[in-house]
UniProtKB/TrEMBL annotation:
Keywords: FAD, Flavoprotein. It comes from Rhodinocichla rosea. Interacts with COX5B; this interaction may contribute to localize PYROXD2 to the inner face of the inner mitochondrial membrane. It is found in: Mitochondrion matrix. This is Pyridine nucleotide-disulfide oxidoreductase domain-containing protein 2. InterPro entries: Amino_oxidase, FAD/NAD-bd_sf. Gene3D superfamilies: FAD/NAD(P)-binding domain.
Length: 356
């Protein structure tokens, strides 16, 4: 349990709760849920430019990272088809992968196919079910993809001024504006209460909020004097109590709750808002192909990690379809912007390719 780990090392409740957010981020779990300690480890085990446990912003926004990878691939001869949805994986006579078919009917033939889509999309939508073992399909269908995340992107005309650390008179950013700001984290019990509400189908009345202002470090993201604020919030169920869906009213009601909370810490925040974009779990699934809105392509619980990710006997990036590999967050070691699953999968694919 994460709570036991934090209690062993720390006494301060605000500190414990702030650290606890990295143990439940993207997970429909509470700090008191067994296995939550691993998710914290997952978020701090890496390094950035030699600094262990450090995180960073991507200059130009997260899309700039994809662009850099694309440029590196193209420089080595890769052909990239943007805005070309894959309809299904093309199979040979022996059931092996032989390329992909795009929605416009174009066939792209290849000896190997690597998919960084989720296991659900890869195996339940892109492969004919009769080509896969029934027990494998059943396990993929049973993967826990619950997501508590609602992401809110906000445009503001000035930096938020927090009661705990008021902004400078000239409006220039202060050190805390460059960091991840955690709200509603005065105690781990608050996080547990927020989780409990969502577990019963109700968006948290006092949600966990991680607030970042990337435009402070990357001014090109917003006009002079203005900023973009990224709100990563929990907990929101995919389906609301009574089977209700996330309509516009429910979406805005929850966002208003989030903004009211921020206003308590930074009076004047709501008046600074120019626009907002609200992405609930169903929105994250529809727009980004995240199953259930889960940012990790599936829960990072102990039963879905290591040799069991995505399912036992297929944790080594290969699949029941010869020549088809899983290289996204649904593969070992899981989610996060680190490229480990892709690198590992590429090494396995290259090894196999040499024997074709």
């Amino acid at each position: 349990l994460l709570g036991q780990i934090l209690d062993h090392w720390f006494e301060s409740e605000p500190l414990k709760a702030t650290l606890a957010t990295d143990a439940v981020i993207g997970a429909m779990a509470s700090p008191h849920t067994p296995g939550s300690g691993y998710v914290l480890l997952h978020h701090v085990m890496g390094e950035l430019e030699g600094r262990r446990g450090a995180w960073g912003y991507v200059a130009g926004g997260m899309g700039a990272l994809s662009h850099a990878i694309a440029q590196a691939a193209a420089a080595r001869g890769a052909h990239i088809f943007a805005e070309k949805a894959v309809c299904h994986v093309l199979l040979g006579r022996a059931g092996e992968a032989r390329g992909v078919v795009l929605q416009d009917g174009t066939e792209v033939r290849s000896k190997l196919v690597l998919s960084n889509a989720s296991p659900q999309i890869t195996f339940l939508e892109l492969i004919p079910q009769e080509q896969l073992p029934k027990d494998f399909v059943q396990r993929i269908r049973q993967l826990d993809t619950r997501s508590p995340v609602t992401k809110i992107n906000v445009a503001v005309d000035r930096l938020p001024s927090f009661l705990a650390a008021p902004s400078a008179r000239d409006g220039q950013p202060l050190p805390h504006h460059q960091c991840s700001i955690h709200l509603n984290c005065e105690g781990t019990q608050l996080l547990h209460q927020a989780f409990t509400e969502a577990a019963h189908g109700h968006p948290s009345s006092r949600p966990m909020i991680e607030l970042c202002i990337p435009s402070v470090l990357d001014p090109g993201l917003a006009p002079p004097g203005c900023h973009v604020v990224s709100l990563f919030t929990q907990y929101t169920p995919s389906v609301l109590a009574g089977g209700r869906c996330w309509d516009e009213q429910a979406r805005n009601t929850y966002a208003d709750t989030v903004f009211d909370c921020i206003e308590d810490y930074a009076p004047g925040f709501k008046a600074s808002v120019i626009g907002r974009d609200i992405l609930t779990p169903p929105d994250l699934e529809r727009i980004f192909g995240l199953p259930g809105g889960n940012i990790f392509h599936g829960g990072m619980s102990l039963d879905q990690l290591y040799f069991a990710r995505p399912v036992p006997s297929y944790s080594g990036y290969r699949s029941p379809i010869p020549g088809l590999y899983l290289c996204g967050s649904g593969a070992h070691p899981g989610g996060g912007v680190m490229g480990a699953a892709g690198r590992n999968a590429a090494q396995v694919a290259v090894k196999d390719f040499r024997h074709l």
